[in-house]
């Protein structure tokens, strides 16, 4: 399990760095576009397409796994706090498994769409050139499947007996 967690952790870190780079590039691209548009009447071609299809897709879907790994999603524990620890862990494991199944199905649907768009070479026309957008379709399955994988690992941890610390 440690090997799977290590590999998933590395993939999660890489996706988080990509998301951060996408946010930085989006900020630079939009700032440059606005500045050039209003000072020199020369906007940056393709800004809308790059922001909409590339930067936003990475910024939204790639951090999913990191947020799940840290368990920073919103959780309402009003009713579960009163449960005994074994029941609470069992309920948490069941919720994680159900969520992982949902995300896996969501990712599958996204992968089918991404595969179809990859096959046709989906692109959109910018002012001066075409922007290939099929690569960004893969952000949905990558983000949701990695989050589902963390949920599966966490569900196993919830029901597995605690391990004794190494001497």
Automatic annotation (TrEMBL):
Topology with respect to the bilayer: Multi-pass membrane protein
Location of the Tripartite ATP-independent periplasmic transporters DctQ component domain: 26-159
GO process terms (BP): C4-dicarboxylate transport
Signal keyword on record: no
Pfam families: DctQ
Transmembrane segments: 7-30, 50-67
Classification via InterPro entries: DctQ, TRAP_DctQ
One Gene Ontology term, aspect cellular component: plasma membrane
UniProt-annotated location(s): Cell inner membrane
Molecular function in Gene Ontology: transmembrane transporter activity
Summary of the function given for this chain in its UniProt record: Part of the tripartite ATP-independent periplasmic (TRAP) transport system.
Family assignment from sequence similarity: Belongs to the TRAP transporter small permease family.
PANTHER family linked to this entry: 2,3-DIKETO-L-GULONATE TRAP TRANSPORTER SMALL PERMEASE PROTEIN YIAM, TRAP TRANSPORTER SMALL PERMEASE PROTEIN
Subunit structure: The complex comprises the extracytoplasmic solute receptor protein and the two transmembrane proteins.
Protein's recorded name: TRAP transporter small permease protein
Taxonomic source organism: Belnapia rosea
